[in-house]
């Protein structure tokens, strides 16, 4: 049988050294191991999703002096008056918190791992009672539409899924589809499906709530495309009514992005897949092998496709008109 530890005894001594009373206090292990002095401010901000208000941290037992010291040490960042964030919180989310809300839309979709275009306005979701909003870069400056046209604010119920600084993936996608062109929306949706950021059922519910014309153009979104460039080109091919298959494996060549008809290969070089010298050489080897097998290859850069360069579809349509796909 394990021995029972005695309660700690607190004795108060008089000037003569004699004990005039003894007090017993029960041992509180939880309080002993989780006192504010032993728990970092960073940990308390982190457990709230990377952002916290001053009154919450004071409620945790920290003092104003400790908050100031933690900020000077870089343990936390004071994003605006009365609000702190962890240094590792991504800058777009930190900016949204500085404004007074959380990230959504295209920027939020990017934070969840979806493909998004390289440039877009930043959408921020705030509570219905939010006020005194600040700009993304300066906590001292009030947010006004005339001074920050690249920041769009939506007042909505904060009980929706997500964290303090980032809306849930479905909400982000809903706003992204509402604020982007149908072509870009198609690519964002396909990346969300291909990367399992949202489920097919979630997309079906979101799709059913869209206007009829937008729903008609987005209904063919699938998981087949492996990059944003492929999704954008897939949308263009569908709009032109050109029949094709994706991710086709050809003996000796490997898997190709698109095959039109029997012989026309179309490839999109993505930033993340074709940046190294070895990739460049391998692509040229594949093109040469494909040519030897009787295929014609059209290869476009991700930038050409993303910018909707007219030469891309013009080249494909010209090749089909010549019968290169037969």
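Sequence proposed for the structure above (326 residues):
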């Amino acid at each position: 049988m394990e021995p029972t530890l005695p309660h700690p005894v607190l004795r108060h001594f008089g000037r003569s050294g004699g004990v005039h009373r003894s007090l017993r206090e029960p041992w509180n292990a939880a309080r002993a191991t989780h006192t504010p002095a032993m728990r970092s401010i960073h940990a308390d901000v982190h457990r709230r999703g990377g952002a916290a208000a001053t009154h919450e941290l004071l409620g945790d037992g920290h003092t104003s002096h400790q908050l100031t010291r933690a900020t000077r040490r870089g343990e936390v960042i004071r994003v605006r008056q009365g609000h702190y964030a962890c240094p590792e919180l991504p800058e777009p989310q930190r900016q949204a918190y500085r404004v007074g809300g959380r990230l959504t839309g295209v920027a939020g979709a990017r934070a969840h791992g979806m493909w998004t275009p390289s440039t877009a306005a930043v959408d921020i979701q705030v509570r219905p009672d939010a006020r005194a909003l600040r700009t993304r870069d300066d906590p001292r400056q009030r947010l006004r539409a005339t001074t920050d046209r690249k920041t769009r604010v939506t007042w909505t119920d904060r009980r929706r899924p997500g964290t303090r600084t980032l809306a849930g993936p479905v909400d982000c996608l809903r706003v992204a589809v509402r604020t982007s062109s149908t072509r870009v929306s198609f690519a964002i949706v396909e990346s969300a499906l291909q990367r399992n950021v949202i489920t097919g059922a979630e997309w079906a519910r979101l799709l059913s709530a869209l206007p009829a014309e937008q729903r008609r153009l987005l209904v063919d979104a699938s998981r087949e495309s492996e990059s944003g460039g492929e999704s954008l080109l897939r949308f263009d091919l569908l709009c032109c009514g050109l029949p094709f298959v994706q991710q086709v494996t050809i003996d000796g060549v490997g898997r190709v992005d698109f095959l039109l008809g029997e012989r026309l290969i179309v490839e999109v070089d993505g930033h993340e897949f074709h940046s190294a010298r070895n990739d460049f050489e391998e692509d040229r080897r594949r093109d040469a092998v494909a040519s030897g097998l009787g295929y014609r290859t059209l290869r476009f850069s991700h930038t050409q496709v993303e910018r909707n360069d007219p030469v891309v579809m013009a080249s494909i349509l010209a090749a089909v008109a010549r019968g290169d796909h037969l």
